[in-house]
Amino acid sequence: MPLHLVSVNNFPTAAGLASSAAGFAALVRAIANLYDLPHSPTELSKVARQGSGSACRSLMGGYVAWRAGTAKDGSDSVAEEVAPVSHWPEMRALILVVSADKKGVPSTAGMQTTVETSTLFPSRANDIVPKRMAEMEKAIQEKDFPTFAKITMMDSNSFHAVCLDSWPPIHYLNDVSRAAMNAVETINKRAGELVAAYTFDAGPNAVIYYQEKDETTVAGVFKYVLQAVGGWDSEYGAAIRRNERGGLESKSVMTMKAGISRVICTGVGGGPEQVDQHLVDERGRPVSV
Amino acid sequence: MPLHLVSVNNFPTAAGLASSAAGFAALVRAIANLYDLPHSPTELSKVARQGSGSACRSLMGGYVAWRAGTAKDGSDSVAEEVAPVSHWPEMRALILVVSADKKGVPSTAGMQTTVETSTLFPSRANDIVPKRMAEMEKAIQEKDFPTFAKITMMDSNSFHAVCLDSWPPIHYLNDVSRAAMNAVETINKRAGELVAAYTFDAGPNAVIYYQEKDETTVAGVFKYVLQAVGGWDSEYGAAIRRNERGGLESKSVMTMKAGISRVICTGVGGGPEQVDQHLVDERGRPVSV
């Protein structure tokens, strides 16, 4: 069967927001559906992983773990569901899009450089990540947000630390990212507990997790500061009430206002869905078949 | 003998440029001279270290190593001369002063946080630094600038990596620091070898090492870009010829122009000197005795 593949996304591409993961996962799922392949999502994750490592996680909804595996050929490096969406549906994510510029270093090439050159990487890979994976799964099973938040932030920092420790060094975080980290620290300090968590993938954009109950305390502060940028109408965004009592440092506020171009309001969601009725052409326009 | 102590410096204070190291070393040396203490600089370094760890190194000129030591009470944590100035006098340092603002995190407190919380720190302290110390001493003995440069840059990055890996994370580098790193990378790439090395202490200011023979290739590029800022008349600075052929990325140039307030042109030098004839009062004015 000859195939004509069209890939469209509504996310900034090549900005460190997992656009390639989403694309490869959708591609693998669509082809599996087309050919009626009987493989489980975990089986398919082996295939998706070839396109972009993190794509293996995107074949499932909810909370997903990517197992490193031990086989030399990587055949047991697969994704598994840790918990379905229904286990902890209150999880929200506010994405602060710092720049939709192309990344300086593509994430796969960057990770190879880090593995080959960072002298701190072996400690991270062999000791720190396995320990945190177990702690994180427990935190998700117990819906323990403070623990989830602390591991999320510390592991993001550890990842960017080994990027900086690579040769040549890799910088994904910039001053705007750091202003977002500072804002989260302030929000948590004022709340007296961890109600927000930042994480950064291979780019400067902040992903800020919080629970629905803390919407005003967390997302409300950012909506007040960043009311001028687009994206507050997306998904959970419209309902967020602006909160002027964030107490953020003025320098962080100025840096975020100047450097953040858009927000995306989302949350934990499902996996790939078949949407035959929305076949589109190369420009994303609906096509009838 | 009652003492009236006056401390004056001509360096930005509390900006991560070792002002406290210079101050404590001068204080210890001055008191030792006053009382005719017979102690060697290495002996005195034990005392200076109590004020500010890095002060122990400032009691000697030339190339100095701070030995970690193994004694529990720190009594064998001292500084030693690796080579005198005369061994490699061609070493130059161009300091780009990014901000004379007070540091967010004082370096001693920051280092304590890192030791207590960074999960990557044990690997750095136990394995990476001791190995690099031996390699660096060899590079200095052999006047091997490319090796000196690579170790300098990698170890600076490793230090800032464990700062970022601390909890809460410590950020000394900012976008201006990264622009300076990028400029050094460009200069080295165009030279086809490592002729420049950046390093950052507990602050955003870049210290850029180069050898006298590469003055135009390295310092000349910064002098061309930063000709509007002050400090080019200091020590070796006046002789540096502006070099417009640096080929730096325009984004790095703009970031440096906007964020660097001053330069200091210096090089490897001597240790503390007694300057009785320059006794000064609290405002730095000469006093006759």
| Shape by Cα distribution of chain A | globular
Order of helices and strands of chain A: HHEEEHHHHEEHHE
Distance from first to last alpha carbon of chain A: 16 Å
CATH H-level homologous superfamily name of the largest domain in chain A: GHMP kinase, C-terminal domain
Would you write up a description of this structure?
- In chain A, the strands form two sheets. Chain A has a four-stranded antiparallel sheet with strand order 4-5-3-6. In chain A, strands 1-2 form a two-stranded antiparallel ribbon.
- The model of chain A has no long low-confidence stretch (mean pLDDT 90).
- Chain A has 289 residues and is α+β, with helices and mostly antiparallel strands.
- Chain A is built from eight helices and six strands, in the order ααβββααααββααβ.
- In chain A, α4 (121-141) runs antiparallel to α5 (145-164).
- Chain A folds into two domains: 11-83, Ribosomal Protein S5, domain 2; 85-270, GHMP kinase, C-terminal domain (Alpha-Beta Plaits, 2-Layer Sandwich).
- Chain A starts with 18 loop residues before the first helix and ends in a 22-residue tail after the last strand.
- Chain A has helices at residues 19-34, 41-51, 107-117, 121-141, 145-164, 175-191, 219-225, 250-259, and strands spanning 63-66, 79-83, 91-97, 197-199, 206-211, 262-267.
- At the A-B interface, α4, α5 and α6 of A face α4, α5 and α6 of B.
